[in-house]
Amino acid sequence: MATLTLNNVTKRFGKKVVAVNDFSLEVPDREFLVLLGPSGCGKTTTMRMVAGLEEVTDGTIFIDGVDVTDLPPRRRDVSMVFQNYAVWPHMTVYENIAYALKLKRMDKKTIDKTVKEAAEMTKIAELVDRYPSQLSGGQQQRVAVARAIAVKPKLFLMDEPLSNLDAKLRVATRTELKTIHDQTEATTVFVTHDQSEAMSLADRIVIMKDGEIVQIGSPDDVYHRSVNLFVADFIGTPPTNFMDVELKVENGDRHLINPHFDFKLTPENAAKLQNYGRKKKLVLGVRPESILLVGEEDSILSAQCLVSEPQGSHQIVAIELGDKLVKIVAPAHPRIESGKTVHLTFDQEAIAFFDSDTGLRI
Ligand SMILES: Nc1ncnc2c1ncn2[C@@H]1O[C@H](COP(=O)(O)OP(=O)(O)OP(=O)(O)O)[C@@H](O)[C@H]1O
Ligand SMILES: [Mg+2]
Fold first, then answer.
1. 57: how many CB neighbours lie within 10 A of its CB?
2. Quick one: DSSP state of residue 51?
3. CATH number belonging to the domain at 4-227, selected among 3.40.50.300, 3.40.50.450, 3.90.480.10, 3.90.1150.10
4. Among 28, 105, 134, 319, which is most buried by a count of CB atoms within 10 Å?
5. pTM of the full predicted structure?
6. Pocket of ligand 1 (CB under 6 A)
């Protein structure tokens, strides 16, 4: 059990590459924290610095209040599971899990007990005598996780541990990882570039871009209160629909207009935009589930359905607004066929406004 603190951590490779820039973060004991961001944003580098596999250019790292910035990996009490979960092919599953425990000079009986517990927790108890080549990818993945939890680290680091698994196994395994976390209560930092994985696992998500933190928050925060266009676009599938709009003030009422619609803002939304004058250009962000199918008389917008993708529990309806594709999550029934006209409104409680110059949420 441990806390993790990064203070203004920067990592440069050579003169040009700044992989991580002024990264500060506090991870409380037992938290499941997810680092999320596009490829190359510095997730792995951050993890490697915490593990001690990469030197820090600037800043400090504390584990449980101890400055570990200059400590070698073995003195940090951290376990890491990597993207390519290298399990040792020449050792059985049992030996793989026991290896680090032997290095710790644990006695045989305790090793046996610990290996069995870890194998139990990761559901590979029946496989401990096999070699990795006799296991599926998902099972090998569990061996890597079992090996990491067996050492009972203060801090558990996982770098895209599910990326080699097929979609279904990935979802099943992530549920198990969550259960394992609930059992071990080890502070965990988990890296992914899969936003749905992040949403389902995290207590808090750190969204990174170009080596920097863009937002830290609960899954609910980053989804419903995205700080800027990047986050609103990155989180959620289908992503937020963005529409260029202009502010119109008419008889004291505030409207948002564009060539396709003109609607009056609720008093709450109008208040959010009170510092903006008429003709101000904004970006309206509407989640696909916040565009509602209504009768023509209540609609603010009508359009033809371009395609509709049934998803079982719902359907995703695409319409075109100018050159933009707008996606709507609609109830599964009735099925909306291509070419059918749909009448739509926005759930004003769930829409967001972004400054088109800065990209920041208003
Ligand atoms: N050893 C290195 N030498 C030079 N540049 C590096 C080195 N390692 C990483 N980088 C660069 O640092 C940046 C961050 O890399 P990092 O591996 O941390 O990204 P990531 O977020 O883990 O990406 P991915 O999702 O693809 O794994 C990238 O631009 C990468 O090219
Ligand atoms: Mg990486």
1. 15
2. H
3. 3.40.50.300
4. 319
5. 0.90
6. 13, 17, 19, 37, 39-45, 193
